Amino acid sequence: MLPDWLQWLNYLLWPVVVLSILLVFWLLLFRTIANWIAAPFSGLLAEQLEARLTGATPPDVGVFGIMKDIPRIMKREWQKLALVSAARHRAVAALLYSRRWADGSPGTLVPVQRMDAGDSIL
Question: How many C-beta atoms lie closer than 10 Å to residue 103's C-beta?
Fold first, then answer.
């Protein structure tokens, strides 16, 4: 895709592209794990804030109260994680499988160049 006199730049661009993609995936994974760990405490914080804003008496949350709620909270977090994960997998599959070749044959999971076609699908 680059002119002949810029082919040396190809050796610099590919590592930058690969590292950028890996960085994005790592950041998304880190954010997901951090949110999953912080979710039980976010719920408790929201209860305390709502009680203060409405003027109601805040629920008595001690160490034992938190320990009692952890199984329920973790079960709910696993349910949310499964729901979001399934939705993401369906969206990615729909995007990958919806691509069709110019002649109407079904698409593939990865963009590959057909031998009988002159140019790639990209």
Answer: 8
